[in-house]
Each structure stands twice: as structure tokens, then as C-alpha cells.
Design goal:
Elements: H1 2-23, H2 26-41, H3 46-70, H4 74-103, H5 108-129, H6 133-137, H7 157-160
Helix pairs in contact: 1-4, 1-5, 2-3, 3-4, 4-5
């Protein structure tokens, strides 16, 4: 019985992590779904509609990442970030609202937790635009340490004695 409780808690935490991870893809996913329904409405087959929706979602995500990473102006980067963070925030809000309503119907947690989830999902979406989340927070910059300049081997004191 205890093992099942631990396993259930781990599965629940994994689903919450998955909610935030997938909320970052809300704009490409929503665009792909809308395109698929539009193509189905115009008489295209299911295979063609799904293929075009998948392609459109991937292209939108890659274009957003490219514009955010290589956009020249701060205004362009801010606009691209807003395009991705607003749908992610809405997805995070309603996803957490569904999870919280499983356990409580009213109270302060029903109001606060979805708002926090919206902010976390929006931040995760913007961090995802930078590539990997590790690159977005600056971890891994140990190779480019500007505190101590590199000393060439020929200028070191040990090479003078040889």
C-alpha cells in the first residue's frame, strides 16, 4: 500500500512537470490543431491535414526560436517572447486549475496555485526559446571565464627554466 502511494505521488509530480514542459509548446500546438481543422473543413484528408499541422507546428517553433536567438532588436525579441509566453501562461493556468479542482473546490489555493502555474509556464516557454533551459540560465559558461586571462605556455615561468 505504501509503495502504491509513493508511486502515485511520483506519477502525479511527473504529470505536473509534463504540464509545464508542454505548456511551453502551446502556441505551435494550437496553431497546428487550428490548421488541421481548417484543412479538414476544406476537404483535405486526415493524413494530409495531420502532416501539414505537424509541419506547421514544427516550423513555427523553430522560427520563433531562431528569431528570439538571432533577432537584432530587443523589441523583436520581446514580441516573439510575448507570442510564446501568453498561450503558455493560459495553458499553465487552466492545466493547474484542473489539477487543483480535483482536490479542492473553493478557497485560496484554487485562486493562487493556477496563477503561479501560469507564471511558471510562461517563464518556461521563454526559457525554451533560448534553446535548452541550461543555456538560458547561463550554466555551462565555465569555458568562457573572464576573471583570469589564459597564460600561454611560452610565457609561463616554468618555460623560462627549461
Amino acid at each position: 500500500m505504501t509503495f502504491m502511494l509513493i508511486l502515485g505521488a511520483a506519477a502525479g509530480l511527473y504529470l505536473i512537470w509534463l504540464l509545464f514542459r508542454l505548456a511551453a509548446l502551446a502556441l505551435p500546438l494550437g496553431t497546428g490543431i487550428a490548421l488541421a481543422f481548417e484543412l479538414l473543413d476544406r476537404g483535405y484528408g486526415i493524413g494530409a491535414a495531420l502532416a501539414m499541422a505537424f509541419l506547421a507546428g514544427i516550423l513555427l517553433h523553430l522560427a520563433g526560436r531562431h528569431l528570439y536567438a538571432h533577432g537584432g532588436s530587443t523589441l523583436l525579441r520581446a514580441c516573439v517572447a510575448m507570442l510564446f509566453l501568453l498561450p503558455a501562461g493560459v495553458a499553465g493556468y487552466y492545466g493547474m486549475t484542473g489539477i487543483v479542482r480535483l482536490f479542492a473546490t473553493e478557497g485560496m489555493l484554487v485562486a493562487i496555485l493556477p496563477m503561479l502555474a501560469a507564471v511558471v509556464a510562461a517563464v518556461a516557454a521563454v526559457r525554451g526559446l533560448n534553446g535548452s533551459s541550461v543555456d538560458a540560465i547561463g550554466v555551462g559558461d565555465r569555458e568562457r571565464d573572464d576573471r583570469a586571462p589564459a597564460i600561454p605556455a611560452s610565457a609561463s615561468p616554468a618555460s623560462d627554466r627549461l
